[in-house]
Amino acid sequence: RELLRVEQLRAAHLDQPGQEERFNRYARLAQALLGVPTAFVSIITQHEQLFKGGAGSDLCGTDRSIAFCAHAIETPERILEVPDATQDARFASSPLVTGPMQVRYYAGAPIVVGGHAYGTICAIDTAPRPPMSDAQRARLTDLAAALSHDLSSSQDRHDLTVIARELRHRMGNVYALISSLVTLLARNTATKEELADRLRERIVRLGETQKLIIGEGPNGTPGGGMIIRLAGHVLAPLR
Prior knowledge:
By secondary structure, the protein is α+β, with helices and mostly antiparallel strands. The protein has helices at 2-11, 21-34, 68-72, 95-98, 134-186, 192-214, 224-235, and strands spanning 38-44, 48-55, 61-63, 80-82, 105-113, 116-125. It is 51% helix and 17% strand. It starts with a helix and ends with a helix.
């Protein structure tokens, strides 16, 4: 499951460092909604935490091993909130707590796309804070859901682009095949009517061949009997 999650990040081009303005906007919203000095859109790759968007900091990322967000994506159905990191055994000795960032408060809502938690939208403070109110939790959850939807829509558009490119390629092959058929049949055909009839027959036979190829067999593959029928179908005009 983790390998699939990482592969999806790679396919969505989210595994590269560098902040992007579309994610900065989400970070600024989280910063304003929760009244914190710092907020990030964090993506957890196989080995790193990448801050794809930020407000109040231009930090680009950290090692995954020290990331609060790496813990947050383990429970994608709920927010991870740490009111005082110095009092939490999981984080008290983290360089993010003891080092220059001086993280004390953390709240991260997982960004879930296609059933996989890509990372979080998180709020950070250098002072401990009381737990969020229900209204604040709802705001952060809604913001994460909006970002998840944004990323999912982007992935859908990417998938449609790939499908359209493949369709253009396949249609080009069909046009080339029909063009070759017309040229080949025209060489030995006396009249336009005969050419039309022969061409119509070949095109219908191509369609029937396609049905034979994709219509039978386990896992969509033709069985032995189908191979015989397919060969007879294709070779029939040559008898």
